[in-house]
Design goal:
The complex is a heterotrimer of chains A (269), B (129) and C (441).
Chain A lengths: L1 E6 L16 H6 L1 E4 L8 H6 L5 E7 L5 H13 E7 L1 H5 L24 E3 L6 H12 L81 H11 L3 H10 L3 H6 L7 H4 L8
Parallel strand pairs in A: 1-2, 1-3, 3-4, 4-5
Chain B lengths: L4 E6 L3 H10 L8 E6 L7 H10 L2 E6 L10 H18 L7 E5 L5 H14 L8
Parallel strand pairs in B: 1-2, 1-3, 3-4
Chain C lengths: L1 E5 L10 E6 L5 E8 L5 H4 L8 H6 L6 H16 L5 H26 L12 H8 L2 H19 L8 E2 L2 E2 L5 H29 L12 E4 L5 E5 L7 E4 H7 L1 E5 L3 E5 L10 H7 L6 H11 L9 H19 L20 E8 L2 E9 L5 E7 L1 H16 L8 H14 L4 H5 L12 H4 L2 E2 L2
Antiparallel strand pairs in C: 1-2, 2-3, 3-14, 4-5, 6-7, 7-8, 9-10, 11-12, 12-13
Helix pairs in contact in C: 3-4, 4-6, 4-11, 6-7, 7-11, 10-11
Classes of the chains: A alpha/beta (269), B alpha/beta (129), C alpha+beta (441).
One iron/sulfur cluster binds next to loops of chain A.
Chain lengths: 269, 129, 441
Amino acid sequence: MKIAVHNLLSCGGCDPVFFLEESPEFFRKAEVIFWNKVKDETLKVFRKIPDQGIEIGFLCGAVKSPEHEEVVRLFRRKCRTVVAVGACALWGGIPGLLWIRKEGPRPLSSLVVPDLSIPGCPPEGSTWTVYLQGLLSGRPPGPSEEPVCQECPRDRHPFRLSDFKRFPETEPESRGCYLSLGVFCAGAVTQKGCGARCLRAGYPCLGCYGPPAGLTARGERLLSAMVSALVPQKATEALKNWRDPAGSLYRFDLATHPLVRKGKCGRSD
Amino acid sequence: MKPRIIGFLCEWCAARALENLAFCHPELPVGFQPFRINCTGSLELEVVIKALTEADGVLVAGCPPGECHFREGNLRAGLRLKALKRVLSALGEDLRRLRIIWLSSGEGERLGEEIHKFYRELSLEDRGS
Amino acid sequence: MRKIRLETVSRIEGALSLEIKVDSRDNLAGISWKTDLFRAFESLGVGRPLEEMPFLTARICGICAEAHHLASLQAAEEGLGISPPEGIRKIREAFGLISWLRDHLTVLLLFSGPDLESFPSPDSLSWLEKTGLWDLFLENRKHLRRMLEIVGGRGHLALGGIPGGWGKKISSEERKELGERNERVLLLARKTWELYWEKTVSQPFLWPVQSPLVALSPEGSEVLVLPPGKNKPLRFPLSRFYETLVESEEGSFLKRINLPPFGAYLVGPLARFYLFPSPDFPLSREAHQALKNIGEPDLSRASLFRAYEVLWAAERLKHLLPELPINHSLSFAPLKPVRKQGLGAFEAPRGLLLHHYTFDLDAVIKTVKIITPTAQNLGVISDCVPRFWPYWPLTEEKNLLFEIQRFIRTFDPCVPCMVHLLRNRSPRDSSPEKEGQRKIF
Ligand code: SF4
Ligand code: SF4
């Protein structure tokens, strides 16, 4: 099986090198046509491949420059299956926050339609395996409908809030759902699959697995939920003390926000 | 390009106010597009965002404090929209594009004035017509 | 004048292309590097809550995420006036060591391995297959990922660190598991060292170092600087060192980092070797001794020093693991800065890494400055290319490009780290390069 791999605007952390250990047999059998980490090849070689001549192309990272665009289109032409890997490829990722200043990257899906999208920043090894095996057996999985909360060890119960908090302001050993403590935990608007890693390491979910299937406007939904829980008399104060609204709602997917897509967002300073 | 303002009007107050106003054949600015909603409390932020991407401005009009048909829908909506404004300002949006007013069904004339005022503030008056 | 273009420098972290200008007499007339990996982390950090910085900055680089995580934690804690208890510091050290091991082993066995062979070199996967280390390498990648997961909570892109504490608890079974897995790592470390020693030691010296060597002192409070030809290092308090650094814009986008009065300086395994005390552990002590005897610092052997560090890190870890606290209790630092800024430093696999933040009274970030190892080494690379140019096979283009790449790879450069910190230009002074590629040299 011929494969190609490339990193666009990325930190290199989604690169399949990091998942070699998950699917060694796959990579061992695969014939790597293009992957600058392991081969001394350039795009020149890649351009000469006949269209559809490569079985699977893996693309990680977001798109910013004309060169990125060229590579994405090349991959779409040359590869029968294009796999988008990681939050940057899917939604622009953390660098998408640059849109606050009017100039950020776009997700790969704004250019071509990938055949498979593996979520996460980065995808966990187990996620990688599920998606890759699904693909190879002809049943590529889509996003899960369930949120991270399903995998979260914290206790959920109804709550009212008198203030918003940042997670280090909570009781360190508390067991209650972060939302009930006033923390903007993205778990409720994030698809499961990671095993709630961050929640098991003291953090709230920051939202790297993206929205569950069918959920739109996850940032606005999280905001609605939190504001609706506020005791009205305390609300004004709570909103005033709320830090980094854009980061807490759109940490990984500001690039896909309707206002950004319409070019209506961002200030120049 | 013609100006466009989307209005979300609560059916218990603002939408009625608009109906009352209509009897007087007022002159409303070009491109004002009202939507009747069942309570401002039922207005999803997602819809507000969508409206902001498509129109020059968005007007949300609901019942005055204490007069909500569903007890505190307007209060909730007020808080949510206030929170949304914080988000919009963090995103570098022009906050004048989202306007929230409270008025009762008898205040048709005031609604008309508010609409004109909104157009003026966004400098939309001379565009279009 | 002719131009030689290389679209992608292979076997390094990130995408980098190269253009070399050569005059009619084969003299080097200029070299420019281009990459479009610019992600402006220094500007997207602004406005973020301080406690999120360790998580966010880990995304600067997926390869040395753990190093950014730890440096960021330290910068945050300095600002908050907190120093974590001994046990937490040990957990963090273990976390750092495991990430070193994964990084170094990957670089040695996947990236620079084929450079041990002569031109034309095989690709990494077949080279690794030939050495017989493929299976052990993959097995160890698994071990190391699991170890990071046990210590930090996530196997990739660092997690666990929270200002004032560490969020992932380690159970006693997990600690035992760490020890068992580390034994296998140690085995690969030994084999890797032996392989590199055997293949490298008999090679001639090619690229002597003429720049000062710089490393963080082992206890982390000072920076050690060894000027060329000297054998006693100068010591700077960390903050003084940071303030002394001068950034100059070189070419269009590179910020070259100089240490007055020396200019460019080298960080990384080679620098550490000459600045750190000799180790107390049996295998690495022996390796250290052997390396001491081969002579002056030489860049062509940089990989050997990396291999030595693998051995050292695995042994150090073995020593450290039994001391890790079991199920420690969590603690968070209050978000009340005692200073308006914080500076964090960590010896990343590639060398000294600095994070400097300023923030407001609510611990929300105002400015971010990050100085990565690759950014520091760029000065040396750019000074060295003209120096070594005459020794390269200038008439054969393919061979020449291979040699240049081999040279660049000895620095183990990391492109995501190198470019994220270039200045984000404001939209006003836009240039054709703004959207597209950024020239580095
Ligand atoms: S919102 Fe966060 S803390 Fe609460 S249950 Fe979901 S993932 Fe857990
Ligand atoms: S808990 Fe949230 S941020 Fe953490 S890995 Fe899972 S989806 Fe990503």
